[in-house]
What we know:
This is tRNA guanosine-2'-O-methyltransferase TRM11 isogeny. By secondary structure, the protein is an alpha+beta fold. The chain has helices at residues 60-83, 86-91, 94-101; strands spanning 7-15, 31-40, 45-54.
Amino acid sequence: MLVMGGRLVFFYPVLREEEFSETHFPEHPCFQLISSSEQILSSRYSRVLLTMVKTGPYTEEIAEVARTKHMEFKENHVKWLEDGNLHSAIFSPADAQLTEAGDSKFIKDPKPKYRGKYV
């Protein structure tokens, strides 16, 4: 429904990691990324304001490719749910992963510091 040349603006959540400085933003054959602006929320999380402009019409071929990708995602998602790994893969704390790796120099204090009422 977006007109040609129209802009789509949205926030995209990002996990801030020093190892991976290159962030992969969503792509679409009908849109071109024209701007990105990061807002740092904490030492671990941020969000990026993405601005995309519509450069082409949404065709039946694009719709078919999207349906195929959606079905592949759905099958993988259901598989993860059946295996019981989805929740632990998404919500496992980073400190637990670092402890398992034996890298104790990155372990933080167990008690989080108070950072203000609205943080």
